[in-house]
Amino acid sequence: MKKFITLSMLFVATALFAQEEPAPPTFTLSGSIDAYYRANFTAPNDENAIAPGSSFANLPGFALGMANVVASYEGEKVGFVADLVFGPRGTDAIFNSPMYSATGDIVNQLYAYWNVSESVKLTMGNFNTFLGYEVISPTANFNYSTSYLFSWGPFSHTGLKADFALSEDFSLMVGVMNDTDLTEFNPTGDYAFGAQLGFVGQYLNVLVDPSFFEIDYTGGFDVSDSFYLGINAAYLSLEDDAGGFMGAALYPQYSVSDTFTVGLRGEYFAEDGNFGAIGSGVDDTSVLALTLTGSFAIDNLTIKPEIRLDSASDDSFIDNDLMPTKSLGSFVLAAIYSF
Q: Where does the UniProt annotation place the signal sequence (predicted)?
């Protein structure tokens, strides 16, 4: 009986010890590649080809997006992310690099983090912006072309941020960073300050940069099992009353089947003064951009046909006769492979 009790106690202790064993650290290699075809309906497709004043998917004919390789390590308390990009989309995304190194134009994100507790996380390095609905990687966006709101807001920051899980529903992030998009080092001696308040998937973001102030709301709702509505609204003001922008976008998406989803991005974007985003060259101009996208998944490959119409309040584009016009119609077919 004594032997039985001893063995039982040893078994229980072993089981408890096994339960307390921390999860082993994991190393992950992931990423994506993307390529596309783009053509204008109402404008030339030769050396005079034009595109909307938003980022990415702006090259004529068959064109390359980028190769994205992400290496990450996740331990019990600490970890890192090294996110590298190669190709036109990546170069456009990190337009202020290289500032220092000959290879600086391939680093999209590079940061280390420390889970101080279950509710506090510290991150230091270069990370993509916390503002806005859309992101740099095409795998995380529904539409392949990007919005004016995304294109003219921040892309990335380098600094130190702290994330707090205030409760099951509320979260808070605060951070101090270099001037926006100055990602390799600080050449100005100035710093930006950012904050994000989250509530059940809805986020209010604020960024105070030495050259501008931006406030942004990003969120969305599952209207039903097959219908989702994303929302983004932002206001940016440059220092010394030098202008800025305001705008809003809705992202209704409907899942037709397990492999096919259709979605619309409806965006209104208005410049305060001559901000320069739309391209008309006049003060206080605006644009309404409607983008209809289909998303067809084949294993890890996603095919996205897209029709886009940009309609501005002033002559911001050209037609097939090279004459100024207020509208531009275009088509994109993208192929995105993720791993």
A: 1-18
